[in-house]
Amino acid sequence: MRAMVLRAGGTPLEQAELPDPQPGTGQALVRVLACGVCRTDLHVFDGELPRSKLPLVLGHEIVGEVVSSRGRFEPGDRVGVPWLGWTCGECAYCLTGRENLCDRARFTGYDTDGGYAELCVADERFCFPVPDGFADVQAAPLLCAGLIGYRSLRVAGDAARIGLYGFGAAAHIVCQVALHEGREVYALTRSGDDDAQAFARSLGATWAGDTATRPPAELDAAILFAPAGELVPTALGHVRKGGRVVCAGIHMSDIPSFPYELLWGERVVRSVANLTRSDGDEFLRIAALVPVETRVEELPLGSANEALACLRAGDVRGALVLVP
Fold first, then answer.
1. What is the CATH classification number for the domain harbouring 237?
2. How many angstroms separate the CA atoms of 188 and 42, rounded?
């Protein structure tokens, strides 16, 4: 099969012919139809998440067709393969509905080869049926940008006014879900990113501006999709007493020190780690109900390096998706 392979952190992906993967017990062989390009891929590529296996095939926003299955799916079924690829099922986290925190968890496109390829294998228990209303390329970003964004929204609680810091793949999906639920959305972007701000307003955001500008209303919660630690004290300064600041990324730069006054008033700072299968089942049902419309730019698999470069530069409106 054809694949884009990471040989070492920080080096360009190499196009290579690899042996077709062979599914093991409980795994499905999946023909990749589309694979989203996620910021976590960029963190792995850059070596900021350094424990990945090497060589490695990146990609964990996979929509594919089942070629062979050991039971749960039938050949020809369309499935989504997410970031969370396996958990032990035995630890205290797994046994209390928190499998996203399993210490032995394995992740797609990090511990196991992912979707920057023509084929992949995946644990059937951690695959999701993809709703019929979504084309392959439109469905791919739902498998991580959508899932992590949705979990972040749930962690933010019943916030009526919610700020989204960084308006990329995850935020443009979460914005639609939040509006569907009757919330007000305030979008905060890098200074001068007029296109992203216009994009947010076109989706229904009440207000859009840059992170250096205080929103016109006090926020009940803030979700940080931008992996910039300096935004934590900024967001704390924007939320009301009792408000929540949710850090949604798997990787973030160091958070600078800040005065206790920003945290005082029972404000809360917390992270979101990975996802659970129940998150996926619930979100995909809601995404079809809204219905979420993902804005995507489709690129051929061989352009994976260019896609990662565009993501690094912030030159993306919505999501990038690779197609073999």
1. 3.40.50.720
2. 22
Both 12 and 35 in one domain: the answer is yes
User: What is the extent of the structural domain holding 159?
Assistant: 147-271
Instruction: Look at residues 234, 257, 256 and name the one whose alpha carbon lies nearest to residue 245.
Output: 234
- Going residue by residue through the chain (324 aa), what tens digit of pLDDT does each one get? 999 999 998 899 999 999 999 999 999 999 999 999 999 999 999 999 878 899 999 999 999 999 998 778 999 999 999 999 999 999 999 999 999 999 999 999 999 999 999 999 999 999 999 999 999 999 999 999 999 999 999 999 999 999 999 999 999 999 999 999 999 999 999 999 999 999 999 999 999 999 999 999 999 999 999 999 999 999 999 999 999 999 998 899 999 999 999 999 999 999 999 999 999 999 999 999 999 999 999 999 999 999 999 999 888 889 999 999
- For residue 83, the tally of other CB atoms under 10 A from its CB is 24
Domain co-membership, 137 together with 279: yes
